[in-house]
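for the writeup, i need someone to sanity check this before i put it in the appendix. the sequnce is what the collaborator sent (i think, or maybe the updated version? ugh). structure was predicted straight from it, no edits. if anything looks off just tell me and ill rerun, i have time this weekend
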Amino acid sequence: MHEPLLLDLARWVNERTLAGTSEGEVLSGMCERLVASGMPLLRAQMGADTLHPLVGGKIFRWWRGRGLEASAYERQEIPAGAAMWRNSPYHHLIETGGSLYRFRYPPANGVYPFPVLEELVAHGITDYVACVHQLGETVKMGEFDCVFSSWSADGQEGFTDAHVALLDALVPFLASAVMTAATRQITRTLVETYLGRDAGERVLRGAIERGIAERIRAVIWFSDLKGFTSMVDSIDPSLVVPLLNDYADAQVAAIHAHGGTVLKFIGDGLLAIFPVGENAAEACGRALAAAEEAFAALATLSARRADSALPATDAYLALHVGEVFYGNIGGAERLDFTVIGPAVNEAARISAMCRPLGQDIVVSQAFAEAARDARTGLLSLGSHTLRGVARPQALFSVQVRRTG
């Protein structure tokens, strides 16, 4: 085997992995170095499933002379690809407990044991090696339980036995690079999915100490669904979670599109913030734009659900501006990265005023004053006493365009 080359490439892969180089770039760089060493490598493929709400996994393909191609398959595509996976050398290796499979072209009996081997004939491939490296029980995360790869040569001789031995020794280093990159991406996905984009980023930067919270000024978004409690009592329980997901999707997409951060779901309620920088009016404008986009999406969603004979509803929304404490709150072993403070409580109380005032969106006086130019689109609803708030608050309604 090519020991000096193995040592050189193993060190290079480890250095790139520690530097945070993407798995695709590591694969491409290793392939180029193998070709430069004299290996007749024409094609390489590496992939793995992942732990992501939408993405099922990633596949990287490298071709000599064409470079790297990267693709992702969605989680909903996994069932459709199950038959293809079961008829692959990778599945064969997992079922038999092997880690390397080799196929030399042409087959002696004219039969290709796996469809992919016959598909590769058109590319002039003469030798094929597949590898699967399974992860240990303490490393697996959901469907992310192995790293699979294949290596194809052209030329009359294909791979030498020394080339195959080199790949067998080298690919585990590349699999570790894929595992490291995937773990990094899974970690980021999980904290952003469950904590919110901004909160997740702060946690990854080290904001994990309990009781450490930053005082910030923010537009507070507090919404909930109309008639949800009575609706739950009257519909099939299996329809409740899909309904919540549909109506959350419409709001989350709009909030994210306008620079807001969704912090948590409280039953059918949603809490989000739009941090105020130097320009409070700009933050208020983004919140109003998100509200208009969200309510238009909700109207379209409700019409579509009604056409499908599914339960439909709408939302109430309160917008408020104030100082909040933004950080880690909770027990020593279970923290929540969120906002607390009187302004958050006031936003919840304002949301409760939507129904008695007959308004879909109600904003506070603090929001109206901060909004400046947008205030011309607000209609005074008078002063009202909020539960648990000492002084009456002036409230305003907002009219947004709807479709659906």
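Residues 106 and 397 are 75 Å apart (CA to CA). The longest helix spans residues 161-195.
thx in advance!!
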